Amino acid sequence: xxxxxxYFTFNTKKKRELVHLTPKLEEVLERANVAEGFMLVSAMHxxxxxxxxxxxxxxxxxxxxxxxxxxxxKDDYAHHRTGEDNGDAHLKSxxxxxxxxxxxxxxxxxxxxxxxxxxxxxxxxxLPCPRPRMQLRDRLRSRRGPAPGTGCESW
Length: 155
Hints:
Layout: H1 22-32, E1 37-42, E2 50-51, H2 57-70, H3 87-96, E3 99-105, E4 108-109, E5 125-126
Antiparallel strand pairs: 1-3, 2-5, 3-4
């Protein structure tokens, strides 16, 4: 069995941010020279996450609102007794998860037509928590071609 590992550090500017990972992941896949298998993408931080979904700005906004509605930022989390102020980020990371497994077929990330990432959504997306975020993104290598408005921006 062939394996290949690479680590990246992302220095984000905002408390919560999505980082588009797909281009980097495609580069890693090319260096790894893997034709068939799986790619494990892990955020490697307790309050960060990665997910696969549609890359549409309205959906991004909906995801942030949904997460904030379930685990809003507030001062009274018991976790804050430790001196931390990110109790909400820990709860949000439970909803998004910290890793995804992406199939590799014929040397390419094998994602569905609308599955793209902007880290945390054009193939995967990084998570909304107050630490570095990550996102995985597919450039829509489907037979149907790219969806309208699916750029590779990060947020």
